[in-house]
Amino acid sequence: MKSRITLGRSFFVRSFQAALPGMGCTLVMAMGMLSPAIAMQINGLESPHSVLADPANNSYYISNVNGEPDARDNNGFITKLNGQAEIVGFKFISGGEQGTTLHAPKGMAFIDQVLYVADVDTLRAFDKNSGKTMMTIAMTSSPLLPARPLSLIDIAANDQGLLFVSDMPGNTIYKVDTKQRHAVSVFIHDERLAGPAGVAVHPKTGHIIVVSWEKGSILDISQDGVLTELVSNSFFTSRFQNLSGIDFDRWGNMYVSDLTKGKVWRMQPNKKFQVIAEFLPAPADVGIDRVNNLILVPYQQANVAEVNGLETPVGATGENRKRTLADYGFVAPPKQDKSERTNK
User: Fold this and answer.
1) Would you say 293 and 28 are in contact if contact means Cβ atoms under 8 Å apart?
2) Beta carbons of 26 and 34 less than 8 angstroms apart
3) Across-strand partners of 28?
């Protein structure tokens, strides 16, 4: 399916150049450095929601809703790419084919050889190598919560074999223990979640980080369920509108996508924000390939996904300095001294 791959100027790169005139973006692929303003663009998708990297197998997976986000039409599918972002299975997993049920796949996560997919109100598990269905986990509303339809949006997995699944309308994060026969429990139910969309595990603390669709806030949930608001909109700083995706790079920088405003933001560990791309056509559940230092962005409205290299957009923060290898993710960022942290 190589005909569906485009090597050229991307939405991400064009938006970057529009925001920062005279600057380009360099794609860093596993194969090495490509020329400036080049990106891998995967076309012909159907309402792509999430892109997930699997560095262990040098591959990528894209979930395609292919219709209404909560429709039980059994036509959703997962596209699989190799390490060069070439399609090896356009409908690697496809609803309605070979006995597979898949309605509107959204968030995805790996545990070992299993690909877990959020599908309306059900968690589905597939063999990530063959695409065969392994199990179906019914995610019914807890008896302690009001009876209502679920709409599962995203999944995050930690290294203890736990899955955390966001239910947007229910303001709930469910926990699935894959080591205990996939037992389902309520991790947290709180109105302050305000439509939880993207979820991720913080690489340093192990906390669950959630972005809010309704309030544009970023929330931290400790392992024992204590919720803390990291970032919120205010009357003076309404930078976010409808946050959709979240992920972290290898150095602990956070990336969030605002689907409505068409922006991707980076938040450094010191909570300093940068817009790294804007004017994007509905960026959904943004993902990061931490091994190859790539950002993976699906565009719901354009039916396209992109694989781009990460770099710091110098000038977006008002700083005037030379770029270093840390800006490209090849080495750890330098530590700040006390005076720098105080001044910021």
Assistant:
1) yes
2) yes
3) 33
Please tell me the distance from the alpha carbon of residue 128 to that of residue 11, in angstroms, as a whole number.
Answer: 29
The two tokens of residue 90 are 């356009």
pLDDT tens, residue by residue, 316-331: 343 444 555 455 444 5
Query: How far, CA to CA in Å, does 21 sit from each of 42, 297, 314?
Result: 26, 22, 11
Q: 267 Cβ partners below 8 Å, 6+ apart?
A: 218, 231, 253, 254, 255, 256, 273
Rounded CA separation 283/49 (Å): 8
Dihedral angle of Cα 31, 256, 188, 74, to the nearest 10 degrees: -70
Token pair listed for 42: 């995967």
CATH 2.120.10.30 assigned to 2-343: yes
**Residue 308: helix, strand or coil by DSSP?**
strand
CA distance 54 to 66: 23
Q: Which phi and psi angles does 55 have, rounded to 5°?
A: -60, -30
Per-residue pLDDT of 230-248, as tens digits, reads 987 765 667 788 899 999 9
Q: Which residues contact 339 (CB under 8 A, 6 or more apart)?
A: none
Across the strands, what pairs with 60?
Answer: 53, 81
Residues 47 and 300: beta-carbon distance below 8 Å: yes
The domain locations on the chain are: 2-343
Q: Nearest-5° angle of CA 148, CA 216, CA 205?
A: 90
Q: What is the per-residue DSSP string for 83-121?
A: TTS-EEEEEEEETTSTT---SSEEEEEEETTEEEEEETT
Q: Give me 127's structure tokens.
A: 């063999």
- 126-183 confidence digits (pLDDT tens): 999 999 999 999 887 666 666 778 999 999 999 999 999 999 999 999 999 999 999 9
Longest CA span, the chain:
62
Best CA proximity match to 341, nearest among 237, 289, 277, 270: 270
